[in-house]
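User: I'm preparing a small set of examples for a lab meeting where we compare how different chains pack in three dimensions. I only have the primary sequence for this one, and I'd like the structure in token form so I can line it up with the others. Please keep the answer compact; I'll paste it straight into my notes.
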Amino acid sequence: MIVTLCHSCALGQSGFAEPLREALEVAGVAVEVRSTDCMSGCTRASTCAFRALGKTAYLFGDLTADDLTDLVTFARHYAASADGNLGDARVLGALRMKAIARIPG
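Assistant: Understood. Below is the structure token output for the 105-residue chain.
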């Protein structure tokens, strides 16, 4: 799984990639955390994408450091899903209301 943070957004500029990487590692989620220049989610900054080969990709926005726990929860469920789709989004807390896009794999 690859998690990409927008480096142009405040969260990306704050160095959030490292705490996210560490939290995912502690949770046992095999992931590569990257950052990239603008992800064009400026109206819903800060943005973060999750993707994996053959799975639905997700783009989340309006993120803050307070979303760390929900991002880790999402990553655990996403990693466990064969196709990236989740049966019940309620386990994701506030993150379920921050989805910008779901892109079929």
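A couple of notes for your slides: The mean pLDDT is 94. Helices lie at 10-13, 17-26, 68-80.

User: Perfect, thanks.
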